[in-house]
Amino acid sequence: MKMVKRLLFLDDIRYPAEVYQYTQQGIFLRKDWHIVRNYDQFVNRILKKGLPEMISFDHDLADENYRKSNAEKTGYDCVKWLIDYCLDNGIDLPKFYCHSMNPVGKENIISLLKNFKKLKQ
Fold first, then answer.
1. Exposed/middle/buried for 68, CB within 10 Å: 0-12, 13-18, 19+?
2. How many other β-carbons are positioned within 10 Å of the β-carbon of residue 73?
3. What is the three-class DSSP state of 119?
4. Which of 50, 47, 66 has its CA nearest to residue 105?
5. Residue partners of 43: CB distance under 8 A and separation at least 6
6. Residue 70 confidence (pLDDT)
């Protein structure tokens, strides 16, 4: 499976340069980010283009939908799909970062990704 030499940014409202303002991580100033706003765009981008070199995750996608019974999928759901995709295709996770402002969601995403990486070693 090929790796696309791009960065994938999952966030429903922000742009990478905005994330730089509170993370001070220089990678968010790069111009080669491809932005996806929801679960479906995330999955479709990877299925069409392959894995990017790095993915930055937001947890809360489309907050207004969380109050509905059929809530939008979160960044955590994207991570679960990504892990299944990597397992199914026998490939390693790309580099990752979680820029979410939701502390619990952020920790859940990072823990799941780190635990998967440990299992693959």
1. exposed
2. 17
3. helix
4. 66
5. 78, 81
6. 56
State the 10-residue block means of pLDDT for the chain, 121 residues long: 74 97 95 96 97 97 58 93 96 96 97 90 67
Looking at residue 69, its pLDDT comes to: 45
CB-based contact 18:25 (threshold 8 Å):
no
pLDDT for res 72: 80
How high is the pLDDT of residue 119? 82
Residue 34 burial (CB < 10 Å; 0-12/13-18/19+)?
middle
Residue 114: in which H helix or E strand, if any?
helix 103-120
- The span from the CA of 42 to the CA of 19, in Å, is 18
Tokens of 86: 């990597």
Rounded CA gap, 24 and 17, in Å? 10
- Residue 75: closest CA among 117, 37, 119, 20: 37
